[in-house]
From TrEMBL:
Keywords: Membrane, Signal, Transmembrane, Transmembrane helix
Signal peptide positions on this chain: 1-23
PANTHER family in UniProt: BLUE COPPER PROTEIN (PTHR33021), PHYTOCYANIN DOMAIN-CONTAINING PROTEIN (PTHR33021:SF533)
InterPro entries noted in UniProt: Cupredoxin, Phytocyanin-like, Phytocyanin_dom
Pfam family, one: Cu_bind_like
Residue stretches spanning the membrane: 144-161
The Phytocyanin domain, residue ranges: 24-123
Protein name in the entry: Phytocyanin domain-containing protein
KW Transmembrane helix (keyword) present: yes
Species assigned in the record: Penstemon davidsonii
Source domain of life: Eukaryota
Length: 162
């Protein structure tokens, strides 16, 4: 009997540990990254962003940057007075509040040339299981696969205990 209680505790701990994995890392621009010549509106169009998801901006350090701005600054491509630039070349932003979020590159005329991103973060919780993978959604597919494995292990443990 003590072994069954121990196994149930392990299953619960495994499932609880899997919950943070529900957040998705989105590499902005997918393989192209954060650079000129990418249509970021099209990139974001088929994605649903949830609280806890992360945006990863990959670019050559020194060639670009990332500013978090408001809607007005986004429309005007104004960056310098609103926030501090992220400049590491591998900037990660955790989506912590729901609503519209605006990002742009403040280098030269990059923003005016289309190097800007607007997304909407849902106030709903992320789904327990991700949908089937589509083009450019390897993070979603990996998340779904991981959660499926956790549930299969839990089911096997329950069957073993019977």
């Amino acid at each position: 009997m003590a072994i069954k209680v121990y196994l149930i505790a392990i299953i619960v701990a495994t499932i609880a540990a899997a919950l943070p994995a529900l957040a998705t890392d989105y590499v902005v621009g997918d393989n192209a990254g954060w650079r000129l010549g990418v249509n970021y509106s099209a990139w974001a169009q088929d994605k649903t962003f949830f609280l806890g998801d992360r945006l990863v901006f990959n670019y050559s350090q020194g060639l670009h940057n990332v500013y978090r701005v408001n809607g007005t600054a986004f429309q005007q491509c104004a960056s310098s007075s609103l926030s501090e630039a992220l400049t590491t070349g591998n900037d990660i932003i955790t989506l912590a509040t729901p609503g519209r979020k605006w990002y742009l590159c403040g280098v030269g005329n990059h923003c005016a040339s289309g190097m800007k991103l607007v997304i909407t973060v849902s106030s709903a919780e992320a789904p327990a299981l991700a949908p089937a993978p589509t083009s450019g959604s390897s993070a979603t597919y990996q998340k779904s696969l991981f959660i499926s494995c956790v549930w299969m292990l839990a089911a096997l443990a329950v069957i073993y205990m019977m």
